[in-house]
């Protein structure tokens, strides 16, 4: 009985290994993608934009289910997964920048990539000049806020890691 009690105490005294920086980046990417696509879905429901989260499924999925709520919920999860890759790109290119402007610029670049460069992949996405002012302003704001969220979170984590490593090297 004592050995079980001793092993339980040892288990309680163990410290959990911290999540790696890349793991935190992936988490920030997924959470950011899901959160901001949920906000985008709310904007769609409230008629601020014509674009729903299920538009991300257009190149891969067939069927009318994409035009229903199920398609939007699956689209939100897919955006979260794709956002993990986007967060890794931010980590590689911009993590060292401490200014919020880097995240804002990153969000604008993402918007340009999706609405200009990747538009041929999405047959249901109208050309920019055919989208309404509400849709344009709402989507630009969503992408900027997404870029700010991901950028600030990743840069903060990068700077915290950097400080911890400097402190660790100074104490040795």
At a glance:
This protein has 172 residues and is mostly helical.
List the main descriptive attributes of the protein structure presented here:
0% strand; 70% helix; mainly alpha; 172 residues
What does this structure look like?
With 172 residues, the protein is an all-alpha fold. It is 70% helix and 0% strand. The chain has helices at 2-13, 21-45, 69-94, 100-117, 133-171. It is built from five helices and no strands. The model has no long low-confidence stretch (mean pLDDT 87). It has one domain (24-167). α4 (100-117) packs across α5.
Q: Alpha-carbon distance between the termini?
A: 41 Å
Structural class: mainly alpha
Q: Could you tell me the strand content as a percent range?
A: under 5%
The SSE order reads HHHHH
Number of strands: 0
- Gross geometry: elongated
Are there runs of 5+ residues with pLDDT below 50, and where?
none
Mean pLDDT: 87
Major β-sheet profile: none
Query: Helical amount among residues, as a percent range?
Result: 55-70%
What is the domain total for the residues?
A: 1
How many helix segments? 5
Gyration radius from CA atoms, angstroms: 21 Å
Topology:
Layout: H1 2-13, H2 21-45, H3 69-94, H4 100-117, H5 133-171
